[in-house]
């Protein structure tokens, strides 16, 4: 039984006239009559009663029409769904994100993608970089957002943007009275750092920046993530450096101060990481939205990032490092 035969049958059943049915199908009458006869032969029943004056459905034809219409509709729906899936307009994407990234460009990416691809289910999972890397390799995650990279040949990444690091400190700290700070002003301060569960981390980059400024930071407290470090800083347990976008997180005793001084200013970068061999059209569509939002936010890198000790400098759209 061919799909074309079923379509011919439904049209003829609706028109009950071979000439009109042939016109709708853009076919001549002889091929239409032949295909209907072949369908009847395969089913072993007469679907139409024919005479010189008219064509009518037999009882078997009426039953077949009743049963086959929803099947044909499902087939058409399946064809449309397959076409949408092939263009990334249908399917599922599982997104991992570090907590600090939710204060920056990621919400705009998610809003835009959900608006432009409503047929794609988005499952958002907040987790640190190490967990995201493992989940990506185990195919439990489609794409992740991280601020540092770990070398892995199975993964690739897109560099989305870089943003300045700013000082987060308690308003009780004497340095809070200054409108801007140099990194060297923090030499005598205790630091709150967030190394997370994997290396290299943003904390390694902060140590590098401090060393470039002529001192090694004295770590007095460690935190799990950037926002936790900022919260501890608000309690005057030390100072820390956080992404500028984290200034959206307002706590009663927490203040932020930009860094100033000669030379390139410390920055943190945001990467989208995914499996190198993932052919998903939904992933391609999501990455395209990431790129568009990064361009709209002015996220083209302008300053060097601190490399991890002993690691080669990573490149945009390269291997995850």
Description:
This protein has 321 residues and is α/β, with parallel strands linked by helices. 37% of the residues lie in helices and 23% in strands. The chain is rod-shaped, with a radius of gyration of 31 Å. The relative contact order is 0.15. About 6% of the residues have low confidence.
The CATH topology annotation of the largest domain reads as: D-Maltodextrin-Binding Protein, domain 2
Which CATH-level-2 architecture of the largest domain?
Answer: 3-Layer(aba) Sandwich
**Alpha carbon gyration radius:** 31 Å
Order of helices and strands: HHHEEHEHEHEEEHEHEEEHE
The proportion of residues in beta strands is 15-25%
As a percent range, the share of helical residues equals 25-40%
Number of helices: 9
The averaged pLDDT comes out at 87
Summarize the structure.
This protein has 321 residues and is of the alpha/beta class. The protein has three domains: 3-86, Winged helix-like DNA-binding domain superfamily/Winged helix DNA-binding domain (Arc Repressor Mutant, subunit A); 91-160 and 270-320, D-Maltodextrin-Binding Protein, domain 2 (3-Layer(aba) Sandwich), CATH 3.40.190; 162-267, Periplasmic binding protein-like II (D-Maltodextrin-Binding Protein, domain 2, 3-Layer(aba) Sandwich). The chain is built from nine helices and twelve strands.
Please name the defining characteristics of this protein.
alpha/beta, 23% strand, 3 domains, single chain, two-stranded antiparallel ribbon, D-Maltodextrin-Binding Protein, domain 2, 321 residues, rod-shaped, eight-stranded mixed sheet, 37% helix, 12 strands, Arc Repressor Mutant, subunit A
